[in-house]
Amino acid sequence: MNSIQLIQKYFPNLSPIQIENFSRLEELYTTWNNQINVISRKDTDNFYERHVLHSLGIAKIIQFKDGSEILDVGTGGGFPGIPLAILFPECQFTLVDSIGKKIKVVNEIAKELGLKNVTGIHERAENIKRKFDFIVSRAVTAMPVFLTWIDEKFKKENINDLPNGVLYLKGGDLIEEMSTVKKHYKFYDLNKIFEEDFFETKKVVYLKN
After folding, report:
1. C-alpha radius of gyration, the chain, whole number
2. Which site among 84, 183, 191, 200 is 20 to 30 Å from 54 CA-CA?
3. 84 — phi, psi (to 5°)?
4. End-to-end CA distance of the chain
5. Residues 129-143: tens digit of each pLDDT
């Protein structure tokens, strides 16, 4: 199963507009990927599993409250930001990447889907001056490096059930990588949530700010 049905399997309460938007993603990304390579070619056959559902793993850890502001660092073509923006229409998502052509895809897809809660910015994360409730990302670099990019970017007031912090999608053995991290962190194993083999070693790493 690699279609919108896979998303509905784990998120059965989607609205009609959410179902329509998720359904359109594969065609939109296939069209853009033929012009600008934003998704690994080998993953395009497993688009809903490896990109959309993987991104939505974050939504199994936290249900963002309306009004939350989320920064997606190194978003590439819009993951995890765009799937999360579809799922949480009352939250604001800022997607940043240092590669301009990828942000062009992000903004065009958000426009095609009518996502008013997505802003794509061609910029290095370090140069973003605003503050956010959460910062999300998908395996852009080792965690100690990542934390230097996002220092001082969190709001002080918490409005969600989890305190403000980082939600980072990553796979493999992370013990050594996390050994120098001083912040409180917790691993959430996605193979306990999603039964597909792809998620066997995949995790959401939560770091409290």
Report:
1. 16
2. 183
3. -65, -35
4. 37
5. 999 999 999 988 888
Among candidate residues 171, 173, 174, the one with its CA nearest the CA of residue 198: 171
H helices of 51-99, where? Answer: 54-56, 81-87
Cα separation, 46 vs 34, whole angstroms:
16
Whole-angstrom distance, CA of residue 23 vs CA of residue 17: 10
Report the distance separating Cα 47 and Cα 205, nearest Å: 22
Local structure of 90: helix, strand or coil: coil
Domain boundaries, the chain: 4-208
Beta 118-122 vs 134-138: how paired, if at all?
Answer: unpaired
CATH dotted code for 4-208? 3.40.50.150
- The answer to whether the CB of 110 falls within 8 A of the CB of 82 is yes
Contact between 76 and 38 (Cβ < 8 Å): yes
**9 phi and psi angles, rounded to 5 deg:** -60, -40
Q: Which two tokens stand for residue 159?
A: 């409005």
Q: How many CB atoms lie within 10 A of CB 38?
A: 22
4 phi/psi in degrees, rounded to 5: -55, -25
pLDDT tens per residue, range 35-74: 887 877 766 778 999 999 999 999 999 999 999 999 999 9
Instruction: Count Cβ atoms within 10 A of the Cβ of residue 65 and give its class: 0-12 exposed, 13-18 middle, 19 or more buried.
Output: middle
